[in-house]
């Protein structure tokens, strides 16, 4: 059960959710889990196929536009629809919404990497057949989407028709009533070519403004008694029809290859045809074998096993599988807030990547993590330009939401003002170094990024009363905007500043010539590193002596507390029911802010301050953001709040499977999925990576019998097996290692350690 997601839904609302849940992807290509044949005419569908980072540029319209507001934004484009396949039995078109559905099941095989949908259908005229639709996006051949349909006649049928289509005239989904979904710019593609060359047909599309091209090349393979086949086309689409004798089972395979100018150059049509023809001798069985092998290797390290709760086991595997399907695996792409499963947030990359989705890959597949860093590094020049546009003389300010490096946030109080994203990105570079020990990457990429982001804080902050302060920023809590000395921002900036100094010392020690070259490239003056260190040492943290807690910012604790208990349930999330200024005037948090800093930088405060702060902020946090529950779970585990840790974890594990936020139809909550891993490994496993080494403080929930996971650290593979009475650490690969268990230093060698 835990390796399969199942559904037999036929109602409108759940079908929209299932389109996201049954989406398939490989980090380059994503296809929503739409029905090949479509729905009934009066039913909605968000029919989508997406190529990571394939975008158009659309204008941002303002009532009043001020200096520095971005003029345009990038928008993920829904590319050509190649999913469509219609089946007819003696002229009666198959649909789940006509005739009788005698049996129906839908499965997503997370261990094998494909989806299947099987229907026992009786037509209005009494024709019966079992029809199975299978689909797969290859992890081995990133451009490949393959479908295979098996039809078994169960009554007397003379002819079976199968019609495949490719439609280039697609649009994006819009919802004017939801700020989390785009409300305009639906039509961003136009068809430049519709072609048929031998047994290959396809479409080429081009975006309106960015002038990026994408091509889809398709070929059909058939097994059965083919009577004839034909094709037709118009200005935007191609259709191919196969006619079979209905006296025996048949199978139709639809092989589609997608290419785009971002990765394949200007000849996208030629590249698509060539790559498709290169697979002409490849069978479905071969593709399935490759898929299985890829996933076997993935699950060997990434799988997390929970004994005692099958639903949670299903949830964590689903979340990890969808993260794998959505993460960009080349330096040209990242991982969007909704991955490749939908159009929520328009395909933009946020801080979600570094703080929530990056850690699972860093600790299980550092090669993928490195690509994510390389992508961010490729946008460093754009971040430096953005800093200047925002009035800074120096430094790198990464955009709050982006695809290619330009700021895409039109609402600056909860967008551009979130300067902490530059420190979040710096944090991910630091932790790559701490986790892998890759000093060459620090020399070639890390030190430069850390210096440029550190420069931002020097320019954005200032000294007052012998303290370094950072004014007019927004922290992670988007219900509190444009504040002075947000604790999260200041603490992360301090870490950034400290590590800029340390990184340059690493470069100087390891490679003096590279150090000199980097100093020249950066124009780094001698006193700058001293300035970074001084600002870090003098960083101001707001603190309330009466409450004994870190204040979220200079004024947060002066505001009236929002009465969450008396707020009607139907008014959550608050952002959809209250003007931002109303929210800004109250003590109310959308998500973890100060509490998140305590997780990422727990040594910046003593445990009692952390405990008092946790207790306070918990009471004023709505968790309207899916990024919040996991953080409260992690910190509850650290503080020994076992029931709370478990309760908050439950909210994360099946958030999309159970559609608890009621917007899964727009795409999966990828950051929450990464947060589920964090809650297990960093929460219940108590794992932290610090300069002192690898630390664990395991706390198994009483509801479980066992929790087992793996991590990679400095070229070691380590298995951690937590049971009620003990934790066992096993070194599976690599040299012996010193690590910490509840503060006690231990040495892990070839034999397991039990504590």
Question: How is the secondary structure organized here?
Answer:
Blueprint: E1 4-7, H1 12-21, E2 24-25, E3 29-31, E4 49-59, E5 72-78, E6 85-89, E7 92-93, E8 100-109, E9 114-122, E10 128-137, E11 144-153, E12 159-167, E13 189-197, E14 200-207, E15 213-223, E16 226-233, E17 237-245, E18 250-260, H2 261-264, H3 268-277, H4 284-302, E19 305-307, H5 310-326, H6 352-364, H7 366-378, H8 380-389, H9 420-436, H10 439-460, E20 461-464, E21 467-470, H11 487-510, H12 512-522, H13 526-537, E22 543-544, E23 549-550, E24 560-561, H14 580-584, E25 586-587, H15 594-600, H16 607-619, H17 629-639, H18 642-653, H19 670-684, E26 688-690, E27 693-696, E28 706-713, E29 716-723, E30 727-733, E31 737-741, E32 744-748, E33 753-754
Parallel strand pairs: 24-25, 27-31
Antiparallel strand pairs: 1-8, 2-3, 3-4, 4-5, 6-7, 6-12, 8-9, 9-10, 10-11, 11-18, 12-17, 13-14, 14-15, 15-18, 16-17, 19-28, 20-21, 22-23, 26-27, 28-29, 29-30, 30-33, 31-32
- Distance separating the two termini: 32 Å
Instruction: Report the count of strand segments.
Output: 33
Lateral strand order in the biggest sheet: 1-8-9-10-11-18-15-14-13
Please outline the major beta sheet.
Answer: 9 strands, antiparallel
Radius of gyration: 27 Å
Shape: globular
Helical fraction: 25-40%
CATH architecture descriptor text of the domain at 4-58 and 71-278 and 286-297:
Distorted Sandwich
CATH class of the domain at 4-58 and 71-278 and 286-297: Mainly Beta
Number of helices: 19
Q: In percent, how much strand structure appears in the residues?
A: 25-35%
Roughly what is the average pLDDT, rounded to an integer? Answer: 96
CATH fold field value of the domain at 4-58 and 71-278 and 286-297: Beta-galactosidase, Chain A, domain 5
Assign the CATH superfamily of the domain at 4-58 and 71-278 and 286-297.
Glycoside hydrolase, family 65, N-terminal domain
Structural class: alpha+beta
């Amino acid at each position: 059960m835990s390796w399969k997601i199942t559904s037999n839904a036929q109602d409108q609302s759940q079908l929209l959710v299932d389109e996201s849940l049954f989406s398939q992807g490989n980090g380059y290509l994503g296809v929503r889990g739409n029905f090949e044949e479509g729905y009934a005419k009066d039913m909605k569908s968000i029919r989508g196929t997406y190529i990571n980072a394939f975008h158009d540029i659309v204008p941002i319209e303002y009532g009043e536009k001020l200096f520095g507001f971005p003029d345009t934004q990038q928008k993920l484009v829904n590319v050509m629809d190649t999913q469509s396949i219609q089946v007819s039995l003696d002229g009666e078109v198959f649909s789940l919404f006509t005739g009788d559905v005698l049996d129906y099941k839908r499965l997503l095989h997370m261990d094998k990497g494909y989806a299947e949908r099987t229907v026992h259908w009786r037509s209005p005229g009494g024709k019966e057949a079992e029809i199975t639709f299978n689909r797969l996006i290859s992890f081995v051949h990133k451009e490949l989407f393959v479908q295979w349909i098996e039809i078994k006649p169960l009554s007397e049928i003379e002819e079976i028709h199968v019609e495949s289509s490719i439609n280039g005239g697609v649009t994006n989904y819009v919802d004017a009533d939801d700020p989390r979904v785009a409300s305009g710019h639906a039509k961003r593609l136009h068809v430049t070519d519709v072609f048929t060359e031998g047994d290959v047909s396809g479409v080429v599309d081009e975006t309106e403004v960015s002038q990026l091209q994408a091509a889809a090349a398709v070929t059909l393979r058939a097994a059965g008694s083919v009577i004839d086949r034909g094709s037709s086309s118009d200005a935007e689409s191609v259709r191919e029809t196969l006619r079979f004798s209905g006296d025996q089972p048949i199978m139709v395979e639809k092989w589609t290859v997608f290419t785009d100018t971002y990765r394949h150059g200007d000849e996208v049509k030629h590249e698509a045809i060539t790559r498709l023809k290169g697979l002409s001798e490849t069978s479905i069985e071969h593709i399935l074998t490759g898929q299985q092998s890829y996933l076997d290797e993935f699950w060997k390290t990434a799988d997390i096993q929970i004994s005692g709760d099958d639903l949670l086991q299903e949830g964590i595997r689903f979340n990890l599988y969808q993260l794998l399907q959505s993460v960009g695996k080349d330096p040209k792409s990242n991982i969007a807030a909704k991955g490749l499963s939908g159009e929520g947030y328009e395909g933009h990359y946020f801080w979600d990547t570094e703080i929530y989705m990056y850690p699972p890959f860093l600790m299980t597949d550092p090669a993928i993590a490195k690509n994510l860093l390389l992508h961010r590094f490729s946008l460093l020049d754009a971040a430096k330009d953005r800093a200047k546009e925002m009035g800074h003389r120096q430094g790198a300010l990464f955009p709050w939401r982006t695809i290619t490096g330009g700021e895409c946030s039109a609402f600056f109080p909860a967008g551009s003002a979130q300067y902490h994203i530059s420190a979040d990105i710096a944090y991910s570079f630091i932790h790559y170094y701490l986790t892998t020990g890759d000093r060459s990457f620090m020399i070639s990429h890390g030190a430069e990024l850390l210096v440029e982001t550190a420069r931002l804080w020097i320019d954005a902050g200032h000294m007052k009363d012998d303290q370094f302060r950072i004014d007019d920023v927004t922290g992670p809590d988007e219900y509190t905007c444009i504040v002075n000395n947000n604790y999260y921002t200041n603490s992360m900036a301090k870490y950034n500043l400290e590590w800029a100094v340390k990184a340059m010392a690493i470069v100087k020690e390891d490679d003096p010539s590279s150090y000199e070259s980097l100093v020249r490239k950066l124009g780094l003056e001698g006193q700058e590193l001293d300035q970074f260190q001084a600002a870090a040492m003098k960083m101001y943290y707001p603190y309330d002596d009466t409450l004994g807690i870190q204040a979220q910012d200079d004024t947060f604790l002066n505001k009236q507390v929002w009465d969450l208990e008396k707020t009607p349930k139907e008014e959550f999330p608050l952002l959809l029911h209250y003007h931002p200024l109303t929210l800004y005037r109250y003590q109310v948090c959308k998500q973890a802010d100060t509490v998140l800093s305590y997780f990422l930088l727990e040594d910046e405060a003593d445990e009692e301050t952390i405990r008092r702060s946790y207790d306070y902020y918990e009471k004023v946090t709505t968790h309207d953001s899916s990024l919040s529950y996991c953080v409260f779970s992690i910190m509850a585990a650290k503080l020994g709040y076992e029931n709370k840790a478990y309760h908050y974890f439950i909210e994360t594990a099946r958030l999309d499977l159970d559609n608890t936020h009621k917007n899964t139809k727009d795409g999966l909550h990828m950051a929450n999925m990464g947060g589920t891993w964090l809650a297990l490994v960093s929460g219940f496993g108590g794992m932290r990576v610090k300069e002192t080494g690898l630390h664990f403080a395991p706390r198994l929930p009483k509801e479980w019998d066992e929790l087992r996971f793996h991590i990679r650290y400095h070229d070691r593979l380590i298995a951690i097996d937590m049971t009620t009475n003990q934790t066992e650490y096993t070194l599976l690969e690599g040299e012996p290692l010193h690590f910490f268990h509840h503060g006690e230093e231990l040495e892990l060698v070839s034999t397991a350690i039990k504590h």
